[in-house]
Amino acid sequence: MHRPKAGPRIVSVGTATPLRKYTQDEILDLFHETDPRIRRLFHSGHIKARYLYLPEPVNGVLPDETNQELLDRHLHGALEIGPQAIEQCLCPLGLAPCDVDFFCCLSATGFLCPGITAHLIKKMAFRENVQRIDVLGMGCNAAVNGLQAVTAFARANPGKLALMLCVEICSAAYVYNRKMSTAVVNSLFGDGAGAVVVRQHDADSWRQGPIVADFEPHIIPEALLAMRYDLEDSKLSFFLERDIPYDIGANVGKPVSRLLGRHGLKRKDIDHWIVHSGGKKVIDAIQYNIGLTDHDMRHTLSILKNYGNLSSGSILFSYKELGHEGVVRDGDLGVAIAMGPGTSIETALLVW
Amino acid sequence: MYDYETLKVTQEGNVVTACLHRPDSRNAINMRMLSELSDLIDTLEEAQDVAVLVLRGSPDVFSSGIDLRDFAARKRRDIYGLQKWERMCRDLEKLNKFTVAAVQGECTGGGFQLVLLCDARIAERQAVFCLNEVKLGFLPGMATFRLAKYVGLGRAKSLVLTGRPIRAKKAQQWGILDRVCDQTSFDETLAETVSNLLPFHLVPLEMARRLLDESYATSYEDFLGHFLAAQHRAINSEAFGRLVAKATSAEPRSNSP
Questions:
Q1: Which of A314, B99, B182, B189 is the most buried (most CB within 10 A)?
Q2: What is the mean pLDDT of residues A251-266?
Q3: Is B228 in contact with A44 (Cβ distance < 8 A)?
Q4: Domain B7-197 coded CATH 3.90.226.10
């Protein structure tokens, strides 16, 4: 492939989680869950622990929360870990929120108006003329969709700074009703925020981060409702269809082949795979459909194990782990894959 | 197509045969041969009209191992050539075709390593297998990873640490070879081996081979997830679809009018 030397680069990444970490057993005990099927489900997903904003138990029992309390928790959490991820992302570059020209916030775990960007602009002293966009409800694939927006901005405005924040308070979308369908969700998702800065700047090189070279989406309209919000007792309750991991597996080769094909690349040319930690089954399905190894998926698996499914923020956590490894070299190629409601598989090509 | 210096490659129908060909050095594997093997594998991966790759040597020698003349005698020797060898081995092991190793005569070191990568492995009675690397002062590559899965740890240690040669019959008893035959019936046995592998169904081949290759390295729970993902792919493949269509159309319909 022709390796671009200039283009919008991801020059920094930051992540944050709530302070409290819960093992799967601790969560089951908090809910006094005795159903052996649900207990087994919590232990079968290869998740060890997750960071969550759970309420304090009252007399040893978790209080039943109103919809308002859940929405409050989403906003409170977003305004706590969102700024932490942003600061971790901006500080190493010697930058502050007032330097940001374009601000994109993504969240699917609570609905609010005004949006999170407005709240964070007030809280963190962004400029009053920062361009902004709030993306609500796209789900686990959203980081790649958001990256499309910030990359487009950075490409059109060389030298200017684009900031993307994925903040998901999945514990604000918990419905606890002892059904298997809610248990599937409650055993899987965790809270976390991830932020990246994207800019096109002549002085940046592969050492700052990769050029976001291309995107290739794939949507499966027949599976429109396979991942969705339902209303349960007037609360938003996330639903995952049983077959969805395998449906994603069966389709993931399509966008990946198109993305690589038009750059004359093969799968074995790709040095780094940054894949959404959706759950063990979907990770298995992706591995066996496009021939990825446990080594290729090491960050995806370790994020799942230690954080659960962080929804849109997930691949930013994996991306950060890859950076910490220090194995990336000049000219390396990476593919990011995130899948979510739609049913949607979003891919991006990264060039260091 | 398939024009190489150290490999003689022919195609008959959907079977490609690659003969290691360095007559002056008993088919020793040098960097040139390594590059040409890599290139052949890349080419075959894209070849829609190929189902089987047969790897052969000459009538008296499969290969005498890595060509030591490729190593620098006086300066620090780096690992990258050998890393390239392992990458080629892995690509061959995962190639999207059936692979057959057909051995006559001496099969030493790197030659033996190649045999362990193939889906089917046959030899004529006079063939001799030997991993002599440790005896010479280096290591038999990732045969250190693969060999014990074929023969068990005890036999692997004996072969690797002593460098003792074994004859084809023993290699068959130990599970390295599927079939052993006389020199005179070698081509016939090879043809039979190839036809026993066919028909070629790519998805189940790749899935089954990967699961088997990983079967010693994973917990039951992890493996079950891998298996289910692989089986989902297999039962949604073209081959299985045809099979089910045939089965259901042959079945008399009790509820039809």
A1: A314
A2: 97
A3: no
A4: yes
Task: Look at chain A and report how many structural domains it folds into.
Answer: 2
- Is residue A100 over pLDDT 90? yes
Higher-confidence residue of A33 and B58: namely B58
Percent of chain A with pLDDT over 90: 83
How distant is the alpha carbon of residue A170 from its chain centre?
11
Contacts across the A-B interface (CB distance below 8 Å) = 35
Q: Which residues contact B216 (CB under 8 A, 6 or more apart)?
A: B149
Across chain A, mean pLDDT equals 94
Q: Are residues A238 and A287 in the same domain?
A: yes
Chain A residues inside the 8 Å CB shell of B210: 288, 291
Helix axes A280-290, A298-307, angle to 10 degrees: 170
Q: Which strands form B166-167's sheet, in the order they lie side by side?
A: B61-63, B106-108, B128-130, B166-167
Q: Please check whether residues A280 and A189 belong to one and the same domain.
A: no
Is the CB of A99 inside 8 Å of chain B's CB atoms? Answer: no
Catalytic residue among A89, A105, A140, A170: A140
- Taking a C-beta distance cutoff of 8 angstroms, is the pair B27, B18 a contact? no
What tokens were used for A304? 């799942």
Per-residue model confidence as pLDDT tens digits over A41-51: 999 878 999 99
Looking up residue A62, the CATH number of its domain turns out to be 3.40.47.10
3-state secondary structure of A327: coil
Q: How far is B223 from chain A (nearest CA, A)?
A: 9
Q: Tell me the chain B residues in contact with residue A46 when contact means C-beta distances shorter than 8 Å.
A: 222
Do A180 and A53 lie in a common domain?
Answer: yes
Cα torsion angle, B43, B47, B50, B51, sign: positive
In chain B, what are the domain boundaries? 7-197, 202-250
Which of B94, B222, B226 lies closest to A288 in CB terms? B226
Q: Is A140 an active-site residue?
A: yes
Residue A2 included in any domain:
no
Distance from CA of A285 to the nearest CA of B (A): 5
Return the residue of A nearest to B229 by Cα: A285
Report pLDDT digits (tens) over B96-114.
999 999 999 999 999 999 9
CA distance, residue B226 to nearest chain A CA (Å)? 5
